[in-house]
Amino acid sequence: MVPSRMTTDTLNALAAAGFDGRIVSVRHIVEIEEMMAELVAKRQIDSTFYSERLTGFRFDSFRKLKAVKSVIVTAAAQPMVRVRFSYQGTDIETFVPPTYSYDTDKTAERLIRKVLDNYGGHLMDCALPVKSIAVRSGLAKYGRNNITYSDRFGSFFRLRAFYSDVEPADDDWGEMKMPEKCVRCHACVSACKTGAIDKDRFLIHAERCLTFHNERRCPFPAWVENKWHNCLIGCMDCQLVCPLNKGKITVTEEAVMFDRNETREILDCIPKEEISRSTRMKIRMLNLLDDYQLLGRNLRVLVERGSGPQRQQVLAES
Ligand code: B12
Ligand code: SF4
Ligand code: SF4
């Protein structure tokens, strides 16, 4: 099929802004839905994790909109964000992992809309599992740690998907692929302290992932050791050891710095409405205002043990 001008202009606009993008037929969404349903039916997915994190997908919303022809999936590079807290006279450095910023979603949307407006095209939000779409469209591959990797960005990118009435490009829709490197490598399995990555099954045990627990508004389970935490939110252990990220690790030069009083406000879990303007502004810069409630608990375990030497070494070598 010869791609339409609207299709090529969309992909070119994304590429010119540094994004990777693919446009696939909307008919494939059924397969994504079936694969997820099969995992649930075979009880491969923990029920608590499923009910808390996977029930927001809407696989059928496009059926109500006749004009929808495709899903546009975008990948935007994002760095780790350096953050520093002042605690008892010492600077504690930590990180917010890539993908916690929604700014690139807004940029992708704006870029695509600008093109579609020229052709009278439409763009709609969609709530779909984006990794599977990215992998089957050829944009990325599934690492053993279940994070997706591209040759260009390693795993340091955020994915986003939209429905549209743009014709699919050449509708590349392949198998789920794992990078060649993962066949013999198990570095992420060894690096994952919680045992979430299973060497005998591809699907990780997401209910054991540190990120599931430090993004959750519940006390940490007793089996999670404080010394395992390595970021203000999320976890970078399986990505920082990964050879597919060699030369691809990006970290912001400047740190977002919280002074003694700002650090104290967070540690004391001062209600969001009462925190100072400067603390609020910095948390907004980190895109973590919606997660503010988690930060006091998460930061406490980090300041009580200081920043880990292994982390500094990995970053120094990157
Ligand atoms: C729920 C969720 C989580 C959960 C569960 C993660 C998980 N692995 O399922 C928790 C809270 C633990 C989490 C953690 C993180 N997340 Co998250 N998360 C999501 C979310 C909302 C849905 C993911 C999902 O669908 N999970 C359900 C499982 C069943 O789907 P799946 O992992 O794709 O599984 C498929 C494969 O296993 C495949 N499969 C099965 N067998 C086999 C065999 C082979 C050989 C192959 C190749 C494939 C294959 O089939 C499965 C179903 O299609 C997405 C956003 C979105 N809308 O999609 C972000 C998302 C996946 N998260 C993301 C990130 C960055 C993370 C963290 C790295 C954050 C961090 N630094 O802490 C960690 C990584 C944890 C990890 N190792 O996966 C990014 C990933 C970007 C990327 N480059 O891939 C996403 C896409 C957000 C975004 N918009 O960019 N996350
Ligand atoms: S650490 Fe090794 S096994 Fe894990 S995702 Fe990276 S290359 Fe694959
Ligand atoms: S993000 Fe951390 S806890 Fe989750 S799978 Fe990777 S190393 Fe394990």
What brief labels describe this structure?
alpha+beta, binds iron/sulfur cluster, 318 residues, globular, binds cobalamin, 12 helices, 9 strands, 3-stranded mixed sheet, 4-stranded antiparallel sheet
Task: Please provide a written account of the structure.
- A four-stranded antiparallel sheet has the order 1-2-8-5, sandwiched between helices. The chain has a three-stranded mixed sheet with strand order 4-3-9.
- It has one domain (5-317).
- Helix 1 runs antiparallel to helix 4 (103-119).
- It is 35% helix and 14% strand.
- The chain is globular.
- It is built from twelve helices and nine strands.
- The chain has helices at 5-16, 29-41, 47-53, 103-119, 130-136, 187-191, 210-214, 237-240, 260-267, 277-285, 292-305, 309-317; strands spanning 20-25, 70-77, 81-87, 90-96, 123-125, 141-142, 148-149, 157-164, 256-258.
- By secondary structure, it is α+β, with helices and mostly antiparallel strands.
- The chain binds cobalamin (B12) and iron/sulfur cluster (2 copies).
